[in-house]
Design a protein that fits this description.
single chain, about 550 residues, alpha/beta, about 40% helix
Amino acid sequence: MGVQTEGKTDERKLRCWGEPLLGPAGSAKSSAVFMKMLAGNSESCIVIDIKREFGETTAKMRETKFGHRIVTFDPVAEETDYLNPLDYIFVFFEQDSPAALSLTQGLILQLYPEPPEEGSNLFFRLGTRSLLATLAMAVVAVCPPEHRNLTTVFRALTNEAFLNELLMQAASCTLLKGEIAQMAEDQHQMAFGDDGAAKTFGQFKIAAMHAIQVFGPGNYLANITSKTTFDFAELKLGKVTAYITVDFANKDVLGKWAGMMLWLATDQLVRANNNTPVIIYHDECCNSPLYNLPTVLTLLRSYGVKYVAATQDLDDFTRVYGKHALETILSEADLKLFLGGIRSQTTLDYLSKYLGEFTTNTSSFAFSEDGVKESVSRTGRALQTADEVRRLKKDAQIVIFGNLKPILARKIQVFAVEPWRKEIAPNSMYGGKRYLKPVEVVITKRRAKATRRGRFSLARRRKWPRLVTYITSRTPVAALLIIVALAAAINAYGFPHLRWQYSFYGSHANPGAKFDCHYIGPQSFTQYGPGCPLVVFRKTW
């Protein structure tokens, strides 16, 4: 990343624990940020691949260059890895651990989250989650491995006879101090009792069906969640890159699944209980939301998990996570990138205020009988107004890192970085041909160096006014007036010259008039003739 420093580009590697990246469609978020990170960072990682391009362009490179094991979750592919969240819960159920219940509740909250702005019908949302949690625990407790999945939970909601049998068998479970049995009995009584609660139960069931219908037997997700071949805790044990692929044509369905996979990943990485570095690259994070993201960001740092998220504008965060969550997300991020080309007025206004102000001189004029009078005052001005941010060049980006001053930097795509541009594979979305731009940055083992093309120079400022301001701000008023008076005298009469040598008439005891006087000063000279004062003012220009 190029860091702007007075006309020179200083290449620095900025490491962070959280990084929100904002840029509109077409601002090169993928090639200017994510691909460069995947090409230059050897740590284990999870990649949310929304456009199916990261796996295609970087998987082979990470396997050969860094020695990573490549894991790919792709619901629409014939060959894929699998992960069943109920298998993960079953491990704790077998141990009679309360974690089984808390994990089930977390899973259901991920699949059926609270809306960003809490509204009415809270009772029905709570009832729906209670039903889903009961059925999920019942499936874990009763069903064999081949049927222990979310598809079976969906089947229980659509088949009344199977629902009755499942709840009755779960009611005999003795683990977890009988809580599963009690949950099953309560739901069975509501569904099949004669106390008039069947109508309410029917409403809960309809909402629950909508929440998990993406796991129905005819859906893409039925297969990929049918068994488990990978645990995200393995990222803490070796070099692994896991791609979670979301087919854009089915993003509404698969986005919910990708968010669930991230929920599983964060829980498994935290339970590994070590600080081995792992990075989560979450492209288009608001299309596959992690419901507890604000809470997770406050915990990941201690466990070595770094989170990099990208979206198009701040309104996306507000729409998905809520207004209050936005402040938490931004405050927990060490590094924030705003790519040139932002068009959202909300984001422009926020960024202008976030960049702060600086003090500048402002002139004002007044007209009177004596003429025009000018007065100068010191006022604050936005470092970048919303309009100035909007008009940033598309190859520019604003970097806010820690407590440093905002940085205006050049946005460089991976296709212009040597040797990364030749290490990544061609992208079939663009004809399958390797795309190469003129080299702007050269990466070596020790450093990154910007070429002439990669420099992002600003107009140079004259430095002497700063020096004058510095001196005058630290000089007393009386001394300043004396200095100004001396400068005016010198300008009018010239620099002073001191008499150094001379001749004279008479004896040393009684010298007469002086002549042939030699003066020293900015321009030494000799004055002939009688009459030589001690100091002579003389212009040298």
